[in-house]
Design brief:
By secondary structure, the chain is α+β, with helices and mostly antiparallel strands. It is built from 5 helices and 5 strands; from the N terminus they run H-H-E-E-H-H-E-E-E-H.
């Protein structure tokens, strides 16, 4: 066998071995401890998410769908179901109505009869929907991907955790995972301002 052929054969073995090792690391199953920790972190995240949305959490179900790892980088997808109610005593306490009420208080005397009718219709629709969410159990179902990094001892680094919501609409017809940081949830003040602007648009459209 020629030296060049021997060299080529050795090089091929190295490449194949390296690929096998890489594939093994990529497809390595997560430990049950890591999966439980990811699930626990997701449970805590969902509770904070629920509180920030001003929902009253009634029940949470979380089940593992898939998992993967690449070296210290790990992730798992969970199917989640939440039962909740909107956590306000009455609809008028919700920012979506408080903003509308504030607009009417500031502008009602300036509106025409048609504008008043349009504004009151908008408010009544929101009042009915919000009261339904307050008095009726709601169910939210979504798959959530939890990704993080393991330290040298194989434990999750809390600050490395990121959460993603599954959404349809990928170019290939599949699903994509959209980053879902808690910071993106609108504050009550932001919702109130948006509702103020929304009813203002309703009134202005009637004017035109």
């Amino acid at each position: 066998m020629s030296k060049s052929l021997i060299f080529f054969t050795l090089l091929l073995l190295i490449v194949i071995t390296g690929y096998a090792i890489a594939s093994n690391n990529q497809n390595k199953q997560l430990s049950s401890v890591t999966i439980k920790e990811l699930q626990a972190q997701l449970g805590d995240y969902l509770k904070k998410d629920t509180d920030l949305r001003h929902w009253k959490l009634l029940d949470t179900k979380i089940s593992l769908v898939s998992q993967e790892s690449s070296g210290a980088e790990v992730s798992a997808v969970f199917h989640t179901e939440r039962e909740y109610r909107l956590n306000y005593a009455k609809a008028d306490d919700a920012p979506a109505l408080k903003g509308r009420s504030a607009f009417m208080k500031n502008n009602a005397k300036k509106l025409s009869q048609k504008q008043l009718e349009a504004a009151n219709k908008d408010i009544e629709i929101w009042r009915q929907e919000l009261n339904q969410c307050i008095n009726t159990d709601q169910t939210g179902v979504v798959r959530v991907k939890v990704a993080g990094t393991l330290d040298s001892h194989g434990k999750l680094i809390p600050d490395s955790l990121k959460f993603y919501f599954e959404q349809n609409g990928a170019p290939d017809g599949g699903v994509v995972y959209i980053p879902a940081p808690l910071s993106q949830i609108p504050t009550p003040q932001a919702v109130e301002k948006d509702s103020y602007d929304a009813i203002s648009s309703v009134v202005n459209a009637e004017k035109k």
